[in-house]
Amino acid sequence: MVRSMNLNRLAALAPAAVIAGTALGADLPSTKEPPLPPPEFSWHGPYAGVYAGALLGDGQFTFVTQTPIRREAFVGGGTLGYNWQWTPQIVLGVEADFGYRGPLEAERVFYVMPRAADGGVLGTARARIGHAFTPRWLVYGAGGFAYGTNFVPRSVFSIAPLAFGQQNTGPTLRAGWTAGAGAEYAWSDQISVKAEYLYAWLADSGINYTTTLGALPANVRSAGHIVRGGLNYHFSFGGAPVPPPPPPLVTK
Predict the structure, then answer these.
(1) Cβ atoms 130, 138 nearer than 8 A
(2) What are the pLDDT digits (tens) for 4-30?
(3) Is 38 exposed, middle or buried (0-12, 13-18, 19+ CB in 10 A)?
(4) Which positions ≥6 away from 205 have C-beta within 8 Å?
(5) Taking a C-beta distance cutoff of 8 angstroms, is the pair 115, 164 a contact?
């Protein structure tokens, strides 16, 4: 009889013990670690990409008289570069590109009518300094070395003196300089898009034409305004690596 009464008393006290234990557990401090913040976005690291656009000639062809080279030509190619995130706002970098320049027409002035210059190569190697006015928007200036095929018309016709000639010294690569500016937007942690303007100048070229009046010299100044857009793939976006979380606390 006494034993039965004790069992009944224990059964009545069990729900109260469970409720008290739950309340005590709620008062204990949590051992769960707060979630780690995502890694900071960074422009730092190498990248590669492609570009396409147009070149507006700003050159000059001198044969008897001066004829401007003012027409448009397609440009396109590939890019390699590296960025250093110097501060959260300042981004330094180097970039090189190599591409194709399409055929370039020359103006016809008075009595001199040059033919188009054949297509050729056009490339640059530049230093860049940029300002990230938001984490994913970058504006920059750039300048450095340029090289490319000179803008030599393949043939020329002149009314006075009456002469028709074909170039007998083919196009050559010339060195020069370039400078410009652009803006770049990080579409994702790996992909960015950009738009930029560059002015490129190549060293003058002295050439000869075989004409109906014999060999006649000419001079070409190769220069132009370049407007182009690009798409870059970045290999190491994401900022500094995040350390692994500490092991959970063990409570007894």
Answers:
(1) yes
(2) 545 455 445 445 544 445 544 445 455
(3) exposed
(4) 150, 152, 172, 174, 219, 220, 222
(5) no
